[in-house]
Amino acid sequence: MDGPVPARPPGPAGAGLRYAESQGDLLVVPVIHAGVLTNPRSRRNLAGAQPTPAPAGVQVEVSRGLETLDEELARLAAARIDLLVIDGGDGTVREVLTRAPRCFTAGMPRIAVLPSGKTNVLAHDLGAPRGWTLEQALASAERGGVASRSPLEVLRPGATSPDLRGFVFGAAAYVRASELAQTGHRLGIFNNLSVAATLAAAVLQTLTGRDDRGWRAGERLALGFDGEAPCEQQLFLLLASTLERLPMGLAPFGAGTRGLRALTVEAPPRRLAAALPPVLAGRSPAWLEAAGYRRHALEIFDLRLPSSFVLDGETYPGGELTVRRGAPLQFVTPVGSETP
Question: Which of 139, 143, 193, 212 has the greatest number of beta carbons closer than 10 A?
Fold first, then answer.
């Protein structure tokens, strides 16, 4: 009782991972109020991967499908979570980002993506490795790993809110390529292997086709950038995205570019065999634009599309569309030992 009074009471310096001597010494219990939306039909979950049991205090919604997704998101919003963990692939992310703002009316929480789908392009961009677990995502969120990404928003005429939100938009040859990718998925080809196989098959189809039909003929559409009136043109490819890193190091929008970017290729594509390497590597030889390969940095584009388009792997009917860069969202990224 009469001894010296310590400078401060003994005990831990604070709560959370940042104060632990090592992550292995700490049982991860989230100090963040997290909720999980799980798609049990995503590829990894269907394959029987056993998820780490959610720590106490984490609310889990196992989605029963699109017809119940709004209800599931509404329950997570009502719980006032500040971290939304999406356990699924790019399609699950697209559906959640499209619907969630209607539920999280006070503002979107941070988002973590567990790459569980056939394609996981957003997770790749964020640096999340395959097999990234809920526990690892919570740990990275506690350590402050975060990156900002703005989804693409697709609007129809007269709409006050987007019909869709996603990250990779494509038309013309991209729709055909997406159909090839779906065939590959049915054969068990996924992720980078799927990208490589689809690209190779698309190039072969284009190089061996005729200018007046099939892949090389392209599609007649009207396109206008940043408020310009849409003008009709024959395009082999329209591709747009806000992602910063694509699989296999592909850089069709140019090296080191950010924001909403687009690539257009005139139909029929000229000098394709020579153009493909610099286009995919992000290089810009002097002849490329004159040959009909053009890169665009923009905020919005308007489109009249007679057929269909693809957003994050799903095909939708065309028509009159506006595609714009949406408000930025905050995504959890791997930190420390979780960084690939």
Answer: 139
User: Is it the case that residue 186 has pLDDT exceeding 80?
Assistant: no
- Whether 110 and 139 share a structural domain: yes
Tokens of 201: 């098959």
- State how far the Cα of 326 lies from the Cα of 314, in Å rounded to an integer: 19
Local structure of 286: helix, strand or coil: coil
Question: Which of the four pLDDT bands, split at 50, 70 and 90, describes residue 154?
Answer: very high
What's the CATH code of the domain at 286? Answer: 2.60.200
CB atoms within 10 A of CB 81: 20
Q: Within this chain, do residues 199 and 268 fall inside the same structural domain, yes or no?
A: yes
Do both 132 and 175 map to the same domain?
no
Cβ atoms within 10 Å of 250's Cβ, excluding its own: 14
pLDDT of residue 102: 95
Query: Is 163 inside a domain boundary?
Result: no
Does 263 have pLDDT greater than 70? yes
Top-confidence residue, 180 or 152:
152
Q: Do the beta carbons of residue 169 and residue 146 sit within 8 Å?
A: no
The Cα–Cα gap between 268 and 198 comes to 20
Residues making up the chain, counted from first to last: 340
Count how many domains the chain has. Answer: 2
Domain of 209, in residue numbers: 168-311
pLDDT tens digits, one per residue of 113-134: 999 988 899 999 999 998 899 9
Which amino acid type is present at position 277?
A: P
In this structure, is residue 9 part of a structural domain? no
Residue 45 DSSP SS3: helix
Considering the domain architecture, whether residues 114 and 233 belong to the same structural domain is answered as: no
What 3-state DSSP class applies to 69? helix
pTM for the model stands at 0.84
- Three-class DSSP category at 220: strand
Examine the domain organization and report whether 218 and 251 are in the same domain.
Answer: yes
In the block, tokens 């619907």 appear at 99
